[in-house]
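TODO from last week: model Metallo-dependent hydrolase.
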Amino acid sequence: MSQLSDYRVLCFDIYGTLIDWEGGILVALLPTIETCNMKFSREEILNQDFGLPYPKLLATVYPTLILRLGLAAPSPDEHIKFSESIAHWPAFPDTVEALKYLRNYYKLVVLSNVDRASFAKTNAGSLQGFQFDLVITAEDIGSYKPDLRNFVYMLDSVKSAFGIDAGQVLQTAQSQFHDHHPAREVGLKSVAVTYTADQFHGIYRGKKCHESDWAEVLDRARQYGCEKMMLRTMNLAGAYQNLEVVKRYPDMCTMTLGVHPYHAAEIYKEDGYLERLREFGQQVLEEHPTCLAAFGEIGLDYEYQRAFEDQLDLAVQMKLPLFLHVRSSCSEFIEIIKPYLPKLPRGGLVHSFAGSKDEMLQLVRLGLGISVNGVCFRTDEQLEMIRHIPLDRLQLETDAPWCEIVMSDAISMYLDNARPLPASRKHGKFVFGQMVKGRNESCTMERVAMVVAGLKGLSVGRVADAAWNNSVRMFG
């Protein structure tokens, strides 16, 4: 399995990976939307296709977008401000500090679909003038990602500038379509920019900031009414770690077993990986049967069909309910899983589901449960989906340390009576007994229940009881 230390160059996509371009666009649109006293979902605004070269896009798109949304024509001043807004699009909170850390160990390269002038504005603004080792834009190449020419051009430039071959270049990006798939076609490794549970061990961006405070996390969860936790397993190595935790806290913790789609490639890089996974599961079921609650997190995330099917076969052998992952592939997911469900009497849970109401209802008709958390409260479409989850299929989760609740006008009224959370500090100023800002914890579970109850027009007690009973019935 590849390690980060195997690479000498990190090649970054910018917008969507280091820069929150969606948030920047939405903020830039607010003056016109507020003037017209209208409301739109995030998707209504962002899912517009204009098919223009990027250098002309911002200048051209604004009046067209306003027209499509049915708003009054923007003023000349609004038009100018929007077309120049790229300079003010925010970086994600830890972007600049992470780049400063990474440049001590890697050459840092930009491969972006914008023009040089646009990137220069962003770099001087929210990226705080950070000095990349090499900047390559669509303007330099004459084509846009996912065109393979962009990646070949980048690799040739890296070889010429630094004498580093493709095998030591890691493409770092958010978009599967624009970056990960074409990167693989030209022989590049790629990673999605996500956080890991290292946060619970005091590790942030590869640096140890404090000792593990897992015991305190459990205590806070109990204080806020969360009595059970199911620890999600991401890969085989993580399964061994989870088992030790579950054995240490048997009254509160259980675990899943499986390989997350993000780690699916590991299965086929190591001989006998699936067999070792099966043997580990069988041993746990024999020696510690109450520890293992479900098979997962498995599922379909773009092209990982083979890993999904192979692990479904293991789940059937172990007679475990499923802990499932679905991202942007619901119809394919249903087609694959449907023949397996008659062999799985306890069915499974689609966790952290943030899709549409129609997709949710299709999954429910298969007999699957639906679990939601803070990431499912972000859009009007998601809130409408939650209102329609049948109570006998609903489960609640936090997905800590990720998926924290982000306050918005759409849900804030449901949390008016929420208990204040414990004090929190940034990880660099960590104090034992306090939460870490930006790190979600299970003590927020009651807030998840309060939002869901508010959306469904039910009491918090009724929603919490239903979700608890559904979880116990499925996972024990």
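Done. Residues 45-53, 189-196 have pLDDT under 50 and may be disordered.
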